[in-house]
Automatic annotation (TrEMBL):
Binding site for Mg(2+): 192, 267
E.C. number(s) listed in UniProt: 2.7.8.13
GO terms under biological process: cell division; cell wall organization; peptidoglycan biosynthetic process; regulation of cell shape
GO MF annotations, alphabetized: metal ion binding; phospho-N-acetylmuramoyl-pentapeptide-transferase activity
UniProt pathway annotation: Cell wall biogenesis; peptidoglycan biosynthesis
Cofactor requirements of the protein: Mg(2+)
Protein's UniProt name: Phospho-N-acetylmuramoyl-pentapeptide-transferase
Similarity field: Belongs to the glycosyltransferase 4 family. MraY subfamily.
GO cellular component: plasma membrane
Annotated TM spans: 20-40, 74-91, 97-118, 130-149, 169-188, 200-219, 239-256, 263-282, 288-311, 338-357
Catalytic activity: UDP-N-acetyl-alpha-D-muramoyl-L-alanyl-gamma-D-glutamyl-meso-2,6-diaminopimeloyl-D-alanyl-D-alanine + di-trans,octa-cis-undecaprenyl phosphate = di-trans,octa-cis-undecaprenyl diphospho-N-acetyl-alpha-D-muramoyl-L-alanyl-D-glutamyl-meso-2,6-diaminopimeloyl-D-alanyl-D-alanine + UMP
Length: 360
C-alpha cells in the first residue's frame, strides 16, 4: 500500500525510498514486530479466557508435557495477523506472487484454526479428521500451484529447476501441478509435526523463511540471476516483504512462546507457516532447495512415517516416540537442549541451501 507513495516522488526525495524492496522489507519487519509486542498480551488474555482448559495434552506423550496443561493455543493468530498487516502495508499489491503466498498462508491458517477450535471445544486431541485436512490442503495447493505456473515466465512454466546443475530444467508438463501440491502440503504438515516443544518450530521457520526470502529477492533481479546463473522469475523479489513480516511476527510470537510458553502456536500457525514456505519455494522455482533449507522439518516428518510404517509391519518401534524430538525427550534430554540444538541444525541446513545459489 505504501508503495504508492512513490507517485509523490520527484526521484530524489524521501518518497523515493518506497521504490526499494529492501527499505520496505525493513518497514515490514518493524511493523510486524511492533504488532506482535502490542497485540500479544491482549490476544493471549482473550485466548486464555475463551479456551478455559487450553490445548488438550496427549496422555500418551512425554510426562513433562502434562505440566503444560491449561496453556492456550491458536497463538498462530498473532503471527499471521502481524505478517498480513505488514505485507498489505508495505508490499506492492499488484504483484501476483504476493497474493499467492498470502492466499496459501491464510487458507492453511483457517484449516489450522478449525482444527484448533475443534480440539479446544471438545477437549480432545483429535480435531478435524485428517482426511478432511489433507483434502482441503491439496485443493488449496492445487489452486496455488496452477496460479504460480501461469505467472512463471513461459520458459519456466511446468519446469522443475535443479539446484547446483546450471541451466538444467526438467519438463514435467502437467505433472508439475501435483508435484507442487505435494511440496506445499508436505511443508505445511512437516512444520505441524515439528511444533511439539516450546519454540521448536517457530525459529526454524524463521530461519527457512529468511533463506527463501534472500532467494526470492535474488531470482527476482535479472542482474543477480545473470551473476549467479539461476533462473530469473520476475516479481518474486516482493516476496521478501512477506518474509520480513513473517520474521518480525515470528520474533514477536517467540517472545511469548519461549519456555515456559504463555501460548502455543497451534495448527493455526504451523499449517499457515509451513504452507507459506512451500508456496514461496514453488513461486521461486526452488522446490528441491526447500528440502535442504527445511531439512529439519523433513526429518521430523520422516521419523513419523518410518515409525508408523515399521510398527504396522513388525509391531516394534524404531524411535522411542515420534516425531523425533519426542524420542530425545524420552532419552532424557531437557526440552531447551533439544530446542536449541535443533535450531542450530536448522541454521546449518539453511546455509547449505543458500550456498546452492552460487555452487553451479
Amino acid at each position: 500500500m505504501l508503495y504508492w507513495l512513490t507517485a509523490l516522488s520527484d526521484g530524489g526525495d524521501f518518497f523515493n525510498l518506497f521504490r526499494y524492496i529492501t527499505f520496505r522489507a525493513g518497514g515490514a519487519f518493524m511493523t510486524a514486530l511492533l504488532f506482535g509486542f502490542l497485540f500479544g498480551p491482549p490476544l493471549i488474555n482473550v485466548l486464555r479466557k475463551r479456551q478455559g482448559k487450553g490445548q488438550p495434552i496427549r496422555s500418551d506423550g512425554p510426562e513433562s508435557h502434562l505440566a503444560k496443561s491449561g496453556t492456550p493455543t491458536m497463538g498462530g493468530l498473532l503471527i499471521v495477523g502481524a505478517l498480513l498487516t505488514a505485507t498489505l502495508l508495505w508490499a506492492r499489491l499488484d504483484n501476483p506472487f504476493v497474493w499467492l503466498v498470502l492466499f496459501v498462508t491464510v487458507s492453511f491458517g483457517l484449516i489450522g484454526f478449525a482444527d484448533d477450535y475443534a480440539k479446544v471445544s471438545k477437549q480432545n486431541v483429535s480435531g478435524v479428521p485428517g482426511r478432511v485436512r489433507l483434502g482441503l490442503g491439496f485443493l488449496i495447493a492445487g489452486i496455488a500451484s496452477y496460479w504460480a505456473a501461469m505467472y512463471h515466465p513461459e520458459a519456466l512454466q511446468f519446469q522443475l529447476a535443479l539446484p547446483v546443475f546450471k541451466d538444467t530444467l526438467i519438463n514435467m508438463g502437467w505433472f508439475f501441478v501435483p508435484f507442487a501440491m505435494f511440496v506445499i502440503v508436505g511443508a505445511a504438515n512437516a512444520v505441524n509435526l515439528t511444533d511439539g516443544l516450546d519454540g521448536l518450530a517457530i525459529m526454524p521457520v524463521m530461519i527457512a523463511s529468511a533463506t527463501l526470502g534472500v532467494i526470492a529477492y535474488a531470482v527476482g533481479r535479472v542482474d543477480f540471476t545473470d551473476y549467479l546463473d539461476v533462473h530469473y522469475v520476475p516479481g518474486t523479489g516482493e516476496i521478501l516483504i512477506f518474509v520480513a513480516g513473517l520474521f518480525g511476527g515470528g520474533l514477536g510470537f517467540l517472545w511469548y512462546n519461549a519456555p515456559p510458553a504463555a501460548v502455543f502456536m497451534g495448527d493455526t500457525g504451523s499449517l499457515a507457516l509451513g504452507g507459506a514456505l512451500g508456496a514461496i519455494a514453488v513461486a521461486t522455482k526452488h522446490e528441491i532447495v526447500l528440502g535442504i533449507v527445511g531439512g529439519l522439518f523433513v526429518v521430523e516428518a520422516l521419523s513419523v512415517i518410518i515409525q508408523v510404517f515399521y510398527f504396522k509391519r513388525t509391531g516394534k518401534r524404531v524411535f522411542l516416540m515420534a516425531p523425533i524430538h519426542h524420542h530425545y525427550e524420552k532419552k532424557g534430554w531437557a526440552e531447551p537442549q533439544i530446542v536449541i540444538r535443533f535450531w542450530i541444525i536448522a541454521l546449518i541446513l539453511a546455509m547449505i541451501g543458500l550456498a546452492t545459489l552460487k555452487v553451479r
